[in-house]
Specification:
Blueprint (H helix, E strand, L loop, with lengths): L2 H5 L8 H12 L4 H7 L4 H13 L3 E6 L8 E6 L1 H4 L7 H38 L5 H14 L4 E6 L2 E6 L5 H6 L2 H14 L3 E7 L8 E7 L5
Antiparallel strand pairs: 1-2, 3-4, 4-6, 5-6
Helix pairs in contact: 3-4, 6-9
């Protein structure tokens, strides 16, 4: 199941406001002009939709320093309410369960829960991410992570690859127990294999708009 596609329609026929929300979620902070260009809307139509989303509390402006002479540019970002339009799977119940486990069994019990989830994910990823090369395995990993609701994709650059996750369906749970994030980093390293290293460059829990992981082949580390 692709959770994001069921939450908001990003197709050409989708509602303009939903398309803007999806674009900002998947591409990051964007000015009105870029939204108009990329979504093939007139500047005035884009401004109208942006103002509707601002009034609804779904997006807000973020000032960017001007590159040269002129006024600072304003980009639009999702608010907490806007991010909630993308599902956080059973968030409230999960947080309550984490609190109950911590209260009944302490941190040791919670660590066992994280380890169990990690082992289950490891079995799945080993079955699915079986490509012959690092790039193939990363593409398979992005596909399974997208099915889990993470809106994941892989981009190649001169240093290797970036695994980008535009949404975190367990964000609320991860804020209550950051062990979930530590276990994911370990799993990604195992998928990449011994010929590459994996580091986290952006983290939602640290205030970023998405999680980004750098996968670098060992021969390019020098």
């Amino acid at each position: 199941m692709n959770y994001a596609s069921k939450s908001l329609d990003n197709s050409a026929e989708g509602k303009p406001a939903e398309r803007i929300l999806f674009f900002i979620k998947s591409k990051g902070p964007s000015p009105t002009a870029r939204l108009a260009q990329m979504l093939e809307m007139t500047p005035e139509a884009a401004r109208q939709q942006v103002q509707k989303l601002v009034a609804a509390g779904l997006i807000e402006g973020r000032q960017q320093d001007a590159a040269g002479v002129g006024r600072p540019r304003q980009d639009w970002v999702l608010t907490e309410a806007g991010n909630r339009r993308f599902p956080d799977t059973h968030a409230q119940m999960t947080v309550q369960l984490i609190g109950s486990i911590r209260q009944l069994f302490g941190e040791e019990g919670l660590d066992k829960l994280v380890a169990q989830r990690e082992n289950e994910a490891r079995l799945l990823y080993r079955q699915v991410c079986n490509g012959a090369t690092v790039q193939e395995r990363l593409a398979q990993l992005a596909a399974v992570r997208t099915d889990e609701g993470y809106m994941a994709r892989v981009e190649a650059d001169a240093q290797g690859w970036l695994l980008i996750e535009d949404h975190c369906p367990i964000c609320v749970a991860a804020r209550s127990c950051q062990g979930f994030c530590r276990s994911e980093l370990q799993l990604f390293a195992e998928v990449a294999g011994l010929d590459a290293t994996v580091t986290r460059e952006q983290h939602v829990l640290a205030g970023a708009t998405r999680c980004v992981y750098r996968i670098a082949p060992l021969q390019k580390l020098a």
